[in-house]
Amino acid sequence: MDKENSDVSAAPADLKISNISVQVVSAQKKLPVRRPPLPGRRLPLPGRRPPQRPIGKAKPKKQSKKKVPFWNVQNKIILFTVFLFILAVIAWTLLWLYISKTESKDAFYFAGMFRITNIEFLPEYRQKESREFLSVSRTVQQVINLVYTTSAFSKFYEQSVVADVSSNNKGGLLVHFWIVFVMPRAKGHIFCEDCVAAILKDSIQTSIINRTSVGSLQGLAVDMDSVVLNAGLRSDYSSTIGSDKGCSQYFYAEHLSLHYPLEISAASGRLMCHFKLVAIVGYLIRLSIKSIQIEADNCVTDSLTIYDSLLPIRSSILYRICEPTRTLMSFVSTNNLMLVTFKSPHIRRLSGIRAYFEVIPEQKCENTVLVKDITGFEGKISSPYYPSYYPPKCKCTWKFQTSLSTLGIALKFYNYSITKKSMKGCEHGWWEINEHMYCGSYMDHQTIFRVPSPLVHIQLQCSSRLSDKPLLAEYGSYNISQPCPVGSFRCSSGLCVPQAQRCDGVNDCFDESDELFCVSPQPACNTSSFRQHGPLICDGFRDCENGRDEQNCTQSIPCNNRTFKCGNDICFRKQNAKCDGTVDCPDGSDEEGCTCSRSSSALHRIIGGTDTLEGGWPWQVSLHFVGSAYCGASVISREWLLSAAHCFHGNRLSDPTPWTAHLGMYVQGNAKFVSPVRRIVVHEYYNSQTFDYDIALLQLSIAWPETLKQLIQPICIPPTGQRVRSGEKCWVTGWGRRHEADNKGSLVLQQAEVELIDQTLCVSTYGIITSRMLCAGIMSGKRDACKGDSGGPLSCRRKSDGKWILTGIVSWGHGSGRPNFPGVYTRVSNFVPWIHKYVPSLL
Amino acid sequence: EMKKRVEDLHVGATVAPSSRRDFTFDLYRALASAAPSQSIFFSPVSISMSLAMLSLGAGSSTKMQILEGLGLNLQKSSEKELHRGFQQLLQELNQPRDGFQLSLGNALFTDLVVDLQDTFVSAMKTLYLADTFPTNFRDSAGAMKQINDYVAKQTKGKIVDLLKNLDSNAVVIMVNYIFFKAKWETSFNHKGTQEQDFYVTSETVVRVPMMSREDQYHYLLDRNLSCRVVGVPYQGNATALFILPSEGKMQQVENGLSEKTLRKWLKMFKKRQLELYLPKFSIEGSYQLEKVLPSLGISNVFTSHADLSGISNHSNIQVSEMVHKAVVEVDESGTRAAAATGTIFTFRSARLNSQRLVFNRPFLMFIVDNNILFLGKVNRP
Fold it and tell me: Transmembrane stretches, by residue range (chain A)?
């Protein structure tokens, strides 16, 4: 190589080095520490600014003495090596700086509030620039500084910022603030939310003697009970503190009976709004939402959140809305303030909210009623602020007195029921009625609760963490010795139905209690009272000896709401003709578009189960929570799965992001298709205490591809109200435990053949069975679903067309596989309209 | 409900005001360092009580040492309160309760030559419900039998052989015993109890009956000390805390024990569904406190420098032995059946990982109500 060439090649390299070393000034400081300069290595680089002093000193002499022989191959290699080395050192330093820099930037934000009792509110506090606001916020910041700089977290404490100082209904000042901690990400795990709050609470010195909750926090009189502190989001911090207020607004509502509109919408971009609402002292705020337009994904991206504070403090959330809605809903605060946050960070279609708020007086929820001596319903009681959602921590008392000692009090609820309290807590209202405890739960039908006493004292305490659905009940007196009229049957739901309707195959009680303990349901088969309609008529089961109930089912008759209508407007009596596997309409329209699987594979084959054959149950899904199998599910369409609600019960489990759905899988972990879960829809009446309404829909983030249709197939949803026959053989499948005492689930998909159990037997076994449940198993035990199978299918094969029907969803049981305790499943046929509401494409 | 109870606990606060010294935990560490690989079990509240009682008869520096050793720095007036506090506590503890067996008592055995001051005897009786017995220590076998029989009778046979041998030179022997057995709020299912391995060390394995119950427990993971803590409530006010140090971290946890740590745990408890595996065991600890307390600064009372003028005019008397014995039985029994109908129906979702807590290696145990009733280390159940 000649000299010129080597010069050319050396020059750009040199440039690079100096460029970088100039950019990273701080890097050089660290260099000697991390990597000492190379001692004694001769660096024959001519006339350059040396990156390091010892190297630079040696250079000029060598260069002048031996110019020509200097550029031999050996030296070039040395030069090149050194150059690479320096480059590596610099890159390493840069990387190190980058890492340490990003690490140190890991900040933790806490939003909190407390009430100061010995400072009165001044209107000036509303102005963030006012001297008064600055002075009071400085005091509070100093106090918080003192608390945390003397705590175990002092090393990480960065600062506190007072965001709002407001009046409130309890007197004194309500201070809202942020606390910021900064620590290396690696140490983030030692940071617990409770500890941060505990430090603040521990610093409040309360006096035991005067027994009030007000104590001294470094000289401030602070109400211990008012302290709330939760981890918050950086984005919330910057939008409530930072200069970029975006669509955020303050509202001061001073006038009663005035609607203050709250409307915002956008068709693109992003909306991250904080609306702070403050009413005059002594009043509350009611927010009425007319419509919300957001992406439905369980609030992962889009949400509307209503807080009972002025900062987004998690534990003061009154309600969250994660789906678009057009029904009017309203919510009431417990103080004179409210924060409404609306988030829609990536608007694709239209996002927005139409709402208004108003100032309302506080309501006392108590009443004393003298009930007249006529039996019947004569008045109504309701939850506080009806028809608004009622806020948590409410309390109502009602006293009733009838005029005769033979009359008791009856309460008729529209979509609610109260039952004896078990050892577990109540989720939707805690009732004390004449010193007995009950829990309330929402459901989809009426119930009547009777108290056989002329004097009734009722107390309702809200037990839900969030605001709860409005509640209305009619009250009246009833004859204690004869709650239902002569000739009528008293349902478990409390309703009274004519005796003639008992065991007629029609669920007149709504809870099916009129159809239990029947010899066998008998429609009136004789000519005179033969009912032309009803579930037993034309349901495919011959109930009458003369077979009359199954005659003339597809004969064309005038259309009404109890007939099935074919595509060519022909109507007939057989109501569940859609996708039942038999072509009934002359044009075949009743069997069109039925996409579910016509059992591809021939029947191949949990507790007492056997290994399945690969591909035998193509609708079976395994749901993984943070990487481990937790529940099962069934494929019902290209992007929807059906599972059990209890799989998603709880803070972490209800968030769709940690979940993945594994489809087309045989051995755990070897799925043909895996998709994250985009959205979880839990039935609104799901109740973890009563196991009722245990059903949930899951929307996949990615629809499974058509190319996998040999391995992944949807299972059919049963026709609405489909009757099942006890003794019918069905299959339960899953990767759950194979024995009750096992600790782990099975690796290979298991299957077990079980029998559908008569509902009466099911009810007498467990007692708490509702019409949303069914039992399946074998009475000897041994074959059953177990832990880990929940949400998975109970698949029954329909004889008429060989299609597989999703009759049940694995839900609960007493242990697993115990004799005389069959498994309990969610009865899917009760939820067909509910499923269609979210998955209309199924029909 | 339990959370409320946990919040109401003022550990060590009702009687002994919070102290500079941490008598309970210093005593624990002193006992632990004396016998590093052995189980430890004692009742801090019972020992404090017996020392406070002794202070009634002590004077000058002997008394100061006891009170300071207990972590108290008291004026005369508050000393009265201290004794009254213990009196109240004793009355509370001795009250018969359902499913709760607790025998706690003190007794002083003095040689025939010692004349006791009437005021001391009556104070012991009224404040500490304690008896004094003249004993002929020259007949050491007879004296030992007298003492052991007394304790056996008081504990209804639960503590026999309190003393294994007796020095015939003894003049004053202080005896302090406590037996405790209570029912859990919710019982463990007998069927769930199975023989399982317990790792005394990584090499030494013993088989123990391991009880198990899945339930909502108060639980926390202390990352600073590297241990897991679970609270299992007894019927009534008492709660047992079981502390499982991470492997190899027993020493670290022991060093970190303090009243503050305990308060922190009670505060940080969170309800959590757990599969708890706990050995069924009976643990007892028997200590000659005169050998341990001097390291906590309480020494004079056991030497010839003792000023026990409040007990007797007799010059040169000292407490020859101070014997403490604590016994606790842990088994499945509970007030509420674990498998009551209506509560055992369970959903069939899988369990999330890390929800099993197995006490199959040495662990620590507290039993607390308003005070620390017991503190111990179970090395070998």
Answer: 77-97
Rounded to whole angstroms, the Cα distance separating B142 from B136 reads 8
Pick from B226, B347, B357 the residue to mutate for testing the A interface (most A CBs within 10 Å).
B347
When pLDDT is averaged across residues A403-431 and rounded to a whole number, the result is 87
Whether A369 and A474 have beta carbons less than 8 Å apart is answered as: no
Q: Strand runs (DSSP E) across A248-336, as ranges?
A: 249-253, 260-266, 271-279, 283-293, 303-307, 317-321, 329-332
Q: What is the CA angle A803-A790-A639, rounded to 5?
A: 55
Question: By three-state DSSP, how is residue B130 classified?
Answer: coil
Contacts of residue A551, defined as CB under 8 A and 6 or more positions apart, other chains included, come to none
Structure token digits, residue A761: 């037997």
Q: How far apart are CA A801 and CA A684, in angstroms?
A: 34
Tell me the chain A residues in contact with residue B336 when contact means C-beta distances shorter than 8 Å: 423
Q: Is the pTM of this model over 0.80?
A: no
Rounded distance between C-alpha atoms, residue A156 and residue A191, angstroms: 10
Short-list A438, A448, A581, CA closest to A513:
A448
- What whole-number distance in Å separates Cα of residue B145 and Cα of residue B140? 8
Q: Cβ distance A414 to A510 under 8 Å?
A: no
Domains contained in chain A, CATH given:
105-232 (3.30.70.960), 247-361 (2.60.120.290), 366-483 (2.60.120.290), 610-842 (2.40.10.10)
What's the distance, CA B93 to chain centroid?
13
- Min CA distance, B278 vs chain A (Å)? 17
Return the number of other C-beta atoms located less than 10 Å from residue A345's C-beta.
13
How remote is the C-alpha of B279 from its chain's centroid? 19
CB pairs under 8 A between A and B: 79
Q: Which helix (H) or strand (E) holds B119?
A: helix B118-128
Residue with tokens 């890390």: B354
Does the interface predicted TM-score (ipTM) exceed 0.90? no
Tens digit of each residue's pLDDT (9 = 90 or more) over A60-73: 444 444 455 666 88
Helix axes A25-34, A3-23, angle to 10 degrees: 100
- Pick from A48, A24, A53: nearest CA to A36: A53
A743 vs B contacts (CB less than 8 Å)? 356
Q: Take residue A626 and report the two structure tokens written for it.
A: 């943070």
The answer to whether B375 and B24 have CB atoms below 8 angstroms apart is yes
- Strand residues in B119-226 grouped as ranges (E): 131-135, 172-182, 184-186, 194-199, 205-222
What lies within 8 Å, CB to CB, of B19 at 6+ separation is: B70, B71, B72
Say if residues A286 and A332 touch (Cβ distance below 8 Å).
yes
The answer to whether the CB atoms of B350 and A198 lie below 8 A apart is no
Q: Which residues of B342-372 are buried (b: 16+ CB within 10 A; e: fewer)?
A: eeebbbbbbbeeeeebbbbbbbbbbbbbbbb
Q: Which residues pair with B200 in a beta bridge?
A: none
pLDDT in tens, A419-442: 887 767 788 889 999 988 899 999
